[in-house]
Design goal:
The structure holds two protein chains of two kinds. Chain A is of the alpha+beta class. Helix content of chain A is about 20%, strand content about 30%. Chain A is elongated, with a radius of gyration of 19 Å. Chain B is about 10% helix and about 35% strand. Chain B is built from four helices and 22 strands. In chain B, a hairpin with a 2-residue loop joins strand 6 (about 80-85) and strand 7 (about 85-90). The chains are: A alpha+beta, B mainly beta.
């Protein structure tokens, strides 16, 4: 696992402080972001009104009437320096099994993905489900989760065109990751299947089930 | 029961309240009024206001009151409003009774107006807010824009509506001032010459603007030679100035996607976001950098979200 440098602490607008662990996505940077988000969830610094973990960063939204940026940045540096809390992001708190109907109408890109990777669809599904994945973050759209990381052998860029909106529960594949949609969205990812698993319920509190760092086991629906 | 029957609605007319903060981690931006100052100004014209507004767009809105009476206030941009054919002041407030018809037609300035009542606009709260997020199709009136035939129920004002709104109203008078911004999280990825050209260059508002973002015309070609940068997707906030692969600048607004992968050169400060939202297509604008300390002085002086 690559060594990470010192995280950057940057203003994002006048009510945001972004802690960025790397400029590119890696297992180490994502684990560090998850670990820091967990630290914050245990104790939110004064004046912070919202936290938003991302692939390689955590955004802290703060109230400038309650805390100065420099004060908050100092507190963040202190939190980041505590070895006792360091990097607990690698361990899953919860595990979910997500049953997917691969291929067919709900997964029109399965055959093409398998062909490009030089596999049969069955072999691809087996490879895809072989190891548990981690929820890297939620973002882009309500309840949209990024899960990773697949082996390098399964890496594939996104499609060159964007599909019109795909239904909630669509299972997407690209760039060594699998994503699950919760709302109808257009997508440039490969659409490989459909699940009944629902991550997003606007009437529930909280409205999403999956947290960054949770473990996801994908399985083929019988 | 008092209701509002929508007779005619311009595109993207929505129910908004102060917004739905705290949901970025679930992939949902806060929404809320495009012009927060005007939203507050309309409430200040009422002794007590419901927490919601109808946010109208340039084409305006016609509606009829059924039941009643209800007090009604308007602010934001410059529209023309009539009650049963008689002009009312903009901004202004008036008492409405059963059967009254209100007609709001385009005026000379602004993109967004706010219609507030001494009642709650009683659409179901979703994740703690009645604000509409048009991009996600959530909240407000069935997650969508209002249209002719819709009936909005009004209910007695709850305790939350009595909370003072500390946002100071702002006018359109200083439209020629530069839009102030903080350098963004990707500013260092732009060449120094591009950063220098960005400051003070003349841009204009294109005709592609909505609650998600405002596309700018880059007449001077500041970003014309910017190579496409592939970035890891990261948190987005309202006011972020992102540069698309073809060099088009977009300022992201209240219904922004919660994350994005385009480089962001800067973020418009909260105090100037309302003014930007009200600029019509064709309006010229320039950007001026400020320090975070200055941005917070403007924020703390009351002119912020």
């Amino acid at each position: 696992m690559a060594e990470l440098g010192t995280p950057l602490i940057l203003p994002l607008g006048d009510t945001g402080l972004l802690v960025r662990f790397a400029a590119t996505l890696s297992d180490a940077a994502n684990s560090a972001a998850i670990g820091f988000a967990r630290q914050l969830r245990r104790r939110l610094p004064a004046g912070v009104v919202e936290i938003d973990p991302n692939l390689v960063s955590v955004l802290l939204k703060y109230d400038p009437t309650r805390v100065r940026f420099d004060q908050l940045a100092g507190e963040v540096r202190l939190l980041l320096s505590r070895p006792a809390d360091a990097n607990p992001g690698g361990e899953a708190v919860a595990s979910y099994t997500v049953s997917v109907r691969f291929g067919g109408d709900g997964g029109p890109d399965l055959k093409g993905v398998a062909t490009t990777l030089g596999m049969t669809p069955e072999a691809f599904v087996a490879a895809h489900n072989a190891a548990p994945l981690r929820v890297l973050t939620t973002g882009f759209a309500p309840g949209f989760v990024y899960c990773g990381f697949h082996d390098d052998a399964l890496k594939l860029p996104r499609r060159s065109d964007v599909r019109p909106p795909v239904p909630p529960g669509s299972v997407l594949f690209a760039a060594g990751q699998t994503a699950i949609t919760s709302t109808p969205i257009p997508t440039g990812w490969h659409v490989i299947g459909l699940t009944d698993f629902r991550n997003f319920d606007p009437a529930a509190d909280p409205p999403t089930r999956l947290r960054e760092g949770d473990q996801i086991v994908f399985e083929a629906a019988p | 029961m008092t209701t509002l029957r929508i007779l005619r609605a311009g595109p993207a007319t929505t129910v908004q309240d102060r917004g739905r903060p705290g949901m970025l981690q679930h992939g949902i931006s806060a929404s809320g009024p495009m012009d927060r100052g005007a939203f507050a100004e309309a409430a200040a014209l009422l002794d007590r206001a419901g927490g919601e507004a109808i946010e109208i767009t340039r084409a305006g809105l016609d509606f009829a009151v059924e039941g009643g009476p209800v007090r009604f206030a308007v602010a934001g941009g410059v529209f023309q409003a009539k009650v049963n054919g008689t002009a009312m002041a903009w901004p202004g407030s008036v008492a409405l009774a059963d059967g009254d018809q209100v007609e709001i037609i385009p005026g000379p300035a602004g993109n967004y107006g706010y219609l507030r009542f001494d009642r709650t606009i009683d659409v179901p709260p979703l994740m703690g807010s009645r604000a509409t997020n048009l991009v996600a199709g959530l909240g407000g009136f069935g997650g969508r824009a209002l249209r002719a035939g819709d009936v909005l129920p009004l209910a007695a004002v709850g305790i939350e509506a009595i909370m003072a709104n500390r946002v100071a109203p702002r006018g359109l008078s200083n439209e020629s001032m530069p839009i102030r911004f903080l350098w963004g999280i990707h500013a260092d990825l732009f060449r120094p010459a591009v950063r220098q050209a960005f400051v003070g260059a003349s841009f204009s508002i294109s005709n592609r603007l909505d609650r998600m973002g405002i596309r700018l015309e880059d007449g001077a070609g500041v970003f014309a030679g910017t190579p496409i940068l592939s970035l890891v997707s990261d948190a987005v906030v309202a006011g972020d100035i992102q540069i698309l692969g073809d060099g088009t600048p977009i300022v992201l607004m209240r219904d922004h996607q919660p994350t994005g992968g385009y480089p962001r050169i800067g973020t418009v400060i909260a105090a100037d976001l309302d003014r930007l939202a009200q600029m019509r297509p064709g309006t010229a604008l320039a950007f001026a950098p400020v320090t975070l300390q200055k941005a917070h002085e403007f924020y703390l002086s009351g002119s912020a979200e």
